[in-house]
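Below is a concrete protein record.
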Amino acid sequence: MTQPILIRRERLLTDALELASAGVPVLPLRAGKLPFGNCTACRDNACGGRPNMKTAGVCVCPAPCHGWAAATTDTAVLTSRPWATAWREARAVAYHPGGAGLTVVDLDNTDAITWARENLPPTRTVATTRGEHWLYLGAMRGANNVQPGVDIKSTMAYARWLGPGTGTMTDLPDTVRALTAKTRPAPQHGGVTVSVPASADGQCRHRTPAYLERGIAMAEGRITDARSAIHHTVYRVFLAVLSTHGRCGCLTETHVQRLFLAAQAKGESPRHCAIAWANARTALGV
């Protein structure tokens, strides 16, 4: 391996460690700006979950599997032996915007940049190969092609790290949130009443709202990534969410709707979603 390549890859790890120390979850990217593929044990979601979450049934593979969900702020993980191979082959550093409480509006060409300047409030910008990333404070569900040449990257997504950018970062505006809201159908409950459990004292015992947001995003992703046994996966995900968040009173109807929407996108009927939710609650006694 030539000296310039060694220096470049050492710089990637240095950048990753600096970002992680600042609370930004990071992961390595291979050629083609792609995350590293799953190992044999995790292929086709056979491991049953995603890494870096302290919940039952979640994958504990030490390698950088699971794409964006492998992003971490744990410097011990980033420098561990399983990740060392990935860094030797890495071509770039990526980060999970939603995990850092950010949203990236990815503008892929000059027309998209022109549209953003006319329709979105100014914020910090980062130059990309073909366009710009506009960074806002606040996380949301991402979506592709919300406008010609415009993608939204936040939860359940990764963005390439291209430097801190220029300008002052501003709060995520409703105009950006509306870009994905108009592209998503409203989830249906199929005529079945869906209730959300509440704790006896109404107190949420989790550390921050971001912990809940990350858990719901991971649950959505696990359903979305399922390639078989969809019924079983949906039920198991509902069980996992309720076992972690079902007794503290922090779940809302909006969270349930997000899970239902993910399941319906995989072909589940609204009624089956409601029944699976009810069965999971019964099984856990919440």
